[in-house]
From TrEMBL:
InterPro entries: DUF6056
Pfam families assigned: DUF6056
Alphabetical keyword list: Membrane, Transmembrane, Transmembrane helix
Cleavable signal peptide: none
Protein name (record): Glycosyltransferase RgtA/B/C/D-like domain-containing protein
Residue stretches spanning the membrane: 12-28, 80-108, 124-141, 147-168, 180-196, 202-219, 226-244, 280-297, 309-326, 332-349, 356-373, 379-397, 409-431
């Protein structure tokens, strides 16, 4: 039954998107709350609603917070409304919402391009694979700040859902003669939400909807009344976003001593310096691929002027990648390159009459033009551009297959391109997964420690400080390692975990360590725990290292001394006798009488008494007691 409904020819596409969403779920299992997330979850960012403990706030308190946020900080309150409600529901809710949002974005990007493919075309699965794998073309910084940070994704990712779904439905609506009020309301709502989501997405939404309306008028010499309503909905949403008093209060605090002209010039330089930076080289390569693709397609027209433009594109595209890698892409050259891309695409798309792609081209550029008014440029600002450009790249990929598919040699080249794109996705996914996976155990440890501190404080225990482990900030978006520099985050974390303000968060400095747990076993029947391993802080004498085993659950922590043992094998392996005394062994009988029943993580604590430094190995090994 399911096979009939899906259709045999669609099974490969369904399989690809199934794998894609599974990979997203696996990755988001490792993504936790960072930085501003705690303050937003407790309604204490910029404006603090009094009387909030954890996320126990009412709807009216949420409205109070958003109202003051609008007036004091900025207009992105629509996205934050959904974001805060998801955080209130729990970490699982915000994870699922982000996974579904990304899945829908890439699904609709595939559907947008597929609408121009003959149903019998056998390259649909290649298009689906290519489109999904484009998710791997962002930089590590962009993933951290724009995708895997919930405060940011609530506007950058959620906003693009409204834009992409709304534009897809609007495009189909323009091609039909039917008048469907419900459909108009839905499309208008999508563009209104996109307009009010965040500045880049909002401006891009206006550009896309206006471009689609104008191109439809050029083709049909008439404008539907509903089109005016839809365009106005995007504009009204954007106006609601930008007129927020908080926007201007923030602008006044950034570059206030700089003249208006210098601010514009500085912003223009920031845009190109970031877009064509080494960190974004993968995206520059993707842009280069689309330029080369359009150039190849223009050569096929045999028109002399178009062929000359095509040759310029074939030369300019690889040069842009080289300049980016060498980090010598001058802003003037960058803007000339962008202008050339726009002209080349307009010339090509004028003949194909694929107005939707033209609208996305202008929309993508629009998401960056609006940054001229921004006081600074962050890595996340590339997300709206990238998500729209992925549609353009997929479209060119599809066009190359469609128009030059009979050439055997060219087919081989396209297969190589597909494999390279898949390879980039795999490498990118592995990098992000391994980074966030390593941080996952530290996040779990910190969360258990914070919840335990909260419980002890409620019971009246005198707690002076809470020892936490710093994260690898490359994959964590500023978990406050230097807590004194992040009072907003510290305050938000204490409110979120219900910890008194007088308690100090002490982020233990981490040192390079060797070792861990070689073997562990908990015999339930005999109630005996055995742990064997070795550990040493790098380049220290293991005789000076004290080793302890920590058992930590959601609510309890127990620390046990171990017996030190010699490890000749470790010393021989590292050719360093300092590691000879790095071994340890622990055997605990009647464990259930020593600790409270529950699931415990086993960690290794190491302290060097001479240097007065300590560190921890968060192993991820667990036991169930009782």
């Amino acid at each position: 039954m399911l096979l009939k409904k899906v259709g045999k020819k669609n099974l490969p596409v369904v399989g690809i998107y199934f794998i894609f969403i599974v990979l997203l779920f696996i990755q988001y299992r490792n993504v936790y709350m960072y930085y501003d997330d705690f303050a937003y979850a407790t309604l204490s960012y910029v404006y603090e609603v009094p009387g909030i403990k954890g996320t126990n706030f009412t709807f009216f308190q949420l409205m109070e917070f958003l109202y003051n946020h609008y007036n004091l900080w900025g207009g992105r309150v629509l996205g934050y409304l959904i974001y805060i409600l998801l955080l209130k529901m729990g970490l699982y809710a915000i994870r699922i919402a982000n996974v579904i949002s990304l899945f829908l974005i890439f699904l609709f990007e595939y559907k947008i391009v597929k609408t121009t493919i003959d149903e019998t075309n056998k390259t649909c699965w290649k298009l689906a694979l290519f489109t999904c794998c484009l998710f791997g073309f962002f930089s590590v910084d962009t993933y951290r700040i724009g995708v895997y940070w919930y405060a940011s994704s609530s506007t950058y990712i959620f906003g693009n859902i409204y834009l992409i779904v709304g534009s897809y439905k609007y495009w189909n609506y323009l091609k039909t003669a039917k008048k469907n009020i419900a459909e108009v309301i839905f499309i208008a709502s999508m563009f209104f939400f996109a307009g009010w989501s965040m500045e880049q997405v909002g401006f891009g939404a206006i550009v896309v909807v206006v471009a689609l309306t104008i191109t439809n008028y050029i083709e049909n010499r008439k404008i539907k009344k509903s089109s005016i309503i839809i365009c106005l909905s995007a504009l009204i949403g954007y106006i609601m976003l930008v007129i927020a008093p908080g926007n201007y209060k923030r602008l006044d605090t950034n570059n206030s001593a700089t003249s208006f002209i210098n601010k514009i010039l500085l912003a223009m330089n920031n845009i190109t310096n970031n877009m064509f930076s080494k960190e974004n080289v993968l995206l520059v390569i993707l842009i280069s691929f689309t330029v080369i693709g359009v150039s190849i397609l223009l050569r096929e027209t045999k028109d002399k002027i178009k062929v000359k433009i095509a040759y310029i594109g074939l030369i300019a595209a690889p040069i842009s990648v080289i300049l980016t890698i060498l980090n010598i892409f001058h802003p003037i050259i960058a803007y000339l390159y962008i202008l050339f891309i726009s002209i080349e695409f307009v010339i090509y798309l004028k003949d194909t009459k694929d107005s939707f792609i033209l609208a996305y081209l202008f929309g993508a550029i629009g998401t960056q033009i609006v940054m001229i008014a921004a006081p600074y440029y962050v890595a996340s600002a590339i997300v709206p551009f990238g998500l729209l450009w992925f549609v353009i790249a997929s479209y060119i990929f599809r066009k190359l297959h469609e128009e030059i598919i009979n050439r055997v040699n060219f087919n081989h080249i396209m297969n190589i391109v597909t494999m390279l794109v898949v390879g980039i996705f795999v490498c990118s996914y592995y990098t992000e997964f391994s980074g966030y996976y390593n941080n996952r155990y530290i996040n779990e440890y910190n969360e258990k420690t914070l919840r335990m501190a909260s419980k002890k404080a409620i019971l009246g225990e005198d707690i002076k400080k809470v020892n936490l482990i710093p994260l690898d900030e490359k994959f964590s978006q500023s978990m406050p390692n230097n807590i004194e520099n992040n009072p907003t985050t510290e305050n938000g974390m204490k409110k979120y975990y219900n910890i008194p303000n007088n308690i100090i968060f002490n982020y233990t400095k981490q040192f390079d360590m060797l070792g861990g747990i070689d073997y562990y076993k908990y015999d339930c029947e005999k109630d005996i725990l055995e742990v064997i391993g070795w550990g040493s802080i790098t380049n220290t004498n293991s005789k000076d290292n004290k080793i302890k085993i920590e058992l930590i659950s959601e609510t309890n922590e127990y620390i046990f001394d171990v017996n030190k043992v010699q490890r000749e094998d470790v010393a021989n392996f590292y050719n360093n006798n300092n590691y000879k005394d790095s071994g340890y062994a622990l055997k605990l009988a009647e464990l259930s009488k020593k600790i409270t029943p529950g699931r415990y993580n086993i960690n290794v604590l190491i302290e060097n008494v001479k240097l007065d430094v300590q560190s921890i190995v968060v192993s991820g090994n667990t036991i169930d007691v009782g």
